From TrEMBL:
Highest taxon, organism lineage: Eukaryota
Name of the featured protein: Proteasome maturation protein
Keyword Metal-binding attributed: no
Lineage start: Eukaryota, Metazoa, Chordata, Craniata, Vertebrata
Organism of provenance: Eudyptula minor
InterPro entries linked to this entry: Ump1 (IPR008012)
BP-aspect Gene Ontology terms: proteasome assembly
Family: Belongs to the POMP/UMP1 family.
Keywords, alphabetical: Chaperone, Proteasome
């Protein structure tokens, strides 16, 4: 057969097409939270994308400077520490403060906009704890 096995793959139907997701699926509030039109809109101002990526761009600049000063090992070590600290989270239904990440970045002594107006008690993402934990563990 000159076509090989590629002709078998193009005629097969992926299993994901048989799942419940699709245009007629109902929105699951417990798993996905409230729908927000704001997340689907394009940025309204040219600086909005820059502000959203501010921390990423600042980390990138700091890593480049650190690499030029101390060598390749310093930014790699710091990135591994960032990754390890980001994995430590509270349960899915509790707000995580990420104090260790703020300390590594040097933001622990700064008071910013998110410190004042990011009250976890006013968060919209609150559901039944047992259901959210089972979903995170893959039991649902």
């Amino acid at each position: 057969n000159s076509r090989g096995t590629s002709y078998l793959l193009k005629d097969s139907v992926p299993i994901t097409d048989f799942s419940a997701s699709g245009p007629f699926e109902g929105h699951d509030l417990l798993r996905r939270g409230f729908t927000s039109v704001k997340n689907e809109l394009l940025p309204s101002h040219p600086l909005e994308l820059s502000e959203k990526n501010f921390q990423f761009n600042q980390d990138k600049t700091n890593f480049a400077t650190l690499r030029n000063i101390q060598g390749l090992h310093a930014p790699l070590k710091l990135q591994m520490e960032f990754r390890a600290v980001k994995q430590v989270q509270r349960l899915p239904f509790l707000h995580s403060s990420n104090v260790a990440l703020d300390t590594l970045r040097g933001n622990d002594e700064c008071i910013g906009f998110e410190d004042i107006l990011n009250d976890p008690s006013q968060s919209e993402v609150m559901g039944e704890p047992h259901m959210m934990m089972e979903y995170k563990l893959g039991l649902l």
